[in-house]
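From the methods appendix. Each design record in this collection lists the discretized structure first, followed by the designed amino acid sequence. Records were kept in a plain field format so they could be parsed without special tools. The example shown here is representative of the layout used throughout.

RECORD:
C-ALPHA CELLS (485 positions):
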C-alpha cells in the first residue's frame, strides 16, 4: 500500500537540487526511486543532483535518453540512472540488466516497467505549480521505501529527535551551541546522569560524518583525546560525541595568561604523534588541493576588493605557487588535521601526557607536510600568538623531530604559511560576499599580517612581488566598503 507523505514546493531549480541532495544522504544499496512527470518536469535535474552528491559536482552526468542507462560507481554501491522512455516492451529489461536488490536505481518513465516494477520503491512525482515552480509529491511503497519516504519528509528536528531516542538520550535536554563557518550544527545534550555533544551534519549542506568517524579512529589509535563516539547515524548525518568540556584553549589563554606557554607546548608536542602510521587512510594533500585553496585569494578576495582577475593573472599566480609548493606537494609524512588552532583544542589537565589536549574539527584531515598544522597553530586567524612564543614552539617541534633539516623545514613553514593565509583571506571574503557573514572581515587584517611575514622569506620573493602588485591590502576603508556592498 502506498501512502503520500509530503507535497514539497520547489519554487526553482535550486530547490529541486536541494531536494536531490537531501535524498542522496538517505540512500542505501537496494533503494529504487521512480521519478515521475512530464517532459521538462525536472526529473533529470533531480537525478543529477542525487548522482552529483556521490561523484562530485565537477563530474559529468549525461542523459540516459539514448543509452537507456548510465552507471556510476561509489564506494558503497553502484548507481543506475535509467530513462525508459524508449523502452518498447518491459521484457527488454533483461537486456539492460537492472539489479534492484544491489544497486541504487533512479528510473525516469518507470511506467514502462509495468508488471516488472519492484514492489519496494520511493516515488517522486513532479508537476507544475501555479506560481511557475513545481510540486514534488513523495510517496513510499513497501516497508523499506515507506521508511525512506518518512525520512525524506521528516524535518531535521524530527530526525534529530529520532536519533536521540534510538541512542537512549530521548529524555535529555538539548541546547544549541554557537556554530562555526561550516554547515554543521552542535548541541549539548544532558540529563542529571550524563552529558554529550550532538553533531548534526546534513549531507544536503555539503557535510559527511564518515570522514570524522575515520579520523577519530586514527587519532584514538595514537592515544590522543579525540571525542569518543557514543552513537552514530552516518546515513542521516548525526553523531553523539563525548563532551570534552568548555576549556577551549583560546578563552583559557585569555583568562589565565600564565598558562599560555604550557598550553602551546602541549599542543606542539601532539604534532609529532601525527606522523603517518600504517593504519592511516586519508586523501593526499596534493598539488591540486593546495592550488585550489590558494586560488581562493584571487577568486574571492580580489573581486571583493574591486579587482577582477584576468585568466592570465590567475594563471600567473597559480604558476608561482606551484613552483613554491612543488616539493611540499609530494610530502606524505603526516596526518594533517588542517584546522589545528586554539578554538579547536580543549585543555584537559586532569588527563596525562598527550591526552591533555582534546581535539575537535579534524574531519578534513589529509596526508601531507608536518609544517602545516604548526602553521595553523601559530599563525592563528582568531587570536594573536606572540613572535616569541611562535619561535619557541618551532624550536620545540624541531627538537622532537631530529630527522628534519631545520632550514628546509623553516622554508616550507613559510611557504605553507603563505598558502594557508592566502586561502583564509579568500575564505573570509567568500563568507562575507556569498554567505552573508561580514563578521569574518574583521579577522582579515590579522591573517594578512601573517601572510606578509611569511612572504619575507627570501625564496618567496616572486610571490611577494606578485601580491604587492596585484592584490589589494585590507585597509580599514576597503573592509568597510566590502561590508557595505
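DESIGN:
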Amino acid at each position: 500500500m502506498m501512502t503520500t507523505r509530503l507535497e514539497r514546493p520547489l519554487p526553482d531549480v535550486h530547490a529541486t537540487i536541494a531536494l536531490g541532495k537531501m535524498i542522496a544522504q538517505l540512500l542505501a544499496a537496494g533503494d529504487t526511486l521512480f521519478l515521475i512527470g512530464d517532459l521538462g518536469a525536472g526529473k533529470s535535474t533531480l537525478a543529477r543532483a542525487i548522482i552529483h552528491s556521490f561523484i562530485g559536482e565537477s563530474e559529468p552526468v549525461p542523459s540516459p535518453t539514448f543509452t537507456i542507462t548510465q552507471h556510476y560507481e561509489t564506494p558503497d554501491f553502484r548507481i543506475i540512472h535509467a530513462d525508459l522512455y524508449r523502452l518498447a516492451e518491459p521484457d527488454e529489461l533483461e537486456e539492460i540488466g537492472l539489479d534492484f536488490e544491489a544497486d541504487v536505481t533512479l528510473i525516469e518513465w518507470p511506467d514502462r516497467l509495468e508488471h516488472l516494477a519492484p514492489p519496494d520503491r520511493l516515488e517522486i512525482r513532479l508537476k507544475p505549480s501555479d506560481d511557475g515552480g513545481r510540486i514534488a509529491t513523495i510517496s513510499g511503497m513497501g516497508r523499506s521505501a515507506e521508511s525512506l519516504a518518512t525520512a525524506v519528509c521528516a524535518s531535521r528536528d524530527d530526525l534529530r529527535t529520532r536519533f536521540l531516542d534510538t541512542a537512549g538520550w530521548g529524555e535529555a535536554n538539548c541546547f544549541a551551541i554557537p556554530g562555526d563557518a561550516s554547515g554543521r550544527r552542535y548541541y549539548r545534550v544532558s540529563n542529571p546522569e550524563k552529558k554529550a555533544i550532538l553533531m548534526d551534519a546534513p549531507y544536503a549542506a555539503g557535510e559527511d560524518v564518515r570522514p570524522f568517524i575515520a579520523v577519530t579512529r586514527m587519532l584514538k589509535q595514537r592515544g590522543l583525546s579525540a571525542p569518543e563516539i557514543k552513537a552514530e547515524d552516518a546515513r542521516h548525518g548525526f553523531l553523539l560525541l563525548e563532551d570534552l568540556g568548555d576549556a577551549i584553549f583560546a578563552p583559557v589563554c585569555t583568562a589565565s595568561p600564565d598558562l599560555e606557554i604550557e598550553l602551546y607546548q602541549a599542543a606542539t608536542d601532539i604534532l609529532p604523534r601525527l606522523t603517518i602510521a600504517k593504519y592511516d587512510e586519508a586523501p593526499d594533500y596534493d598539488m591540486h588541493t593546495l592550488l585550489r585553496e590558494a586560488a581562493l585569494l584571487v577568486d574571492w578576495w580580489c573581486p571583493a576588493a574591486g579587482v577582477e582577475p584576468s585568466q592570465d593573472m590567475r594563471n600567473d599566480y597559480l604558476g608561482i605557487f606551484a613552483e613554491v609548493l612543488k616539493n611540499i606537494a609530494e610530502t606524505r609524512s603526516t596526518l594533517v588535521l588542517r584546522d589545528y588552532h586554539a578554538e579547536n583544542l580543549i585543555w584537559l589537565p586532569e588527563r596525562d601526557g598527550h591526552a591533555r589536549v582534546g581535539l575537535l574539527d579534524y574531519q578534513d584531515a589529509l596526508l601531507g607536510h608536518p609544517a602545516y598544522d604548526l602553521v595553523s597553530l601559530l599563525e592563528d586567524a582568531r587570536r594573536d600568538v606572540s613572535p616569541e612564543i611562535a619561535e619557541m614552539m618551532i624550536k620545540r617541534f624541531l627538537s622532537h623531530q631530529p630527522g628534519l633539516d631545520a632550514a628546509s623545514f623553516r622554508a616550507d613553514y613559510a611557504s605553507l604559511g603563505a598558502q594557508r593565509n592566502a586561502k583564509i583571506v579568500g575564505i573570509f571574503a567568500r563568507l562575507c560576499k556569498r554567505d552573508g557573514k561580514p563578521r569574518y572581515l574583521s579577522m582579515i587584517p590579522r591573517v594578512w599580517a601573517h601572510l606578509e611575514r611569511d612572504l619575507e622569506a627570501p625564496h618567496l620573493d616572486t610571490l611577494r612581488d606578485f601580491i604587492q602588485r596585484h592584490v589589494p591590502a585590507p585597509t580599514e576603508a576597503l573592509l568597510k566598503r566590502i561590508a557595505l556592498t
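APPENDIX NOTE: The two ends are 54 Å apart (CA to CA).
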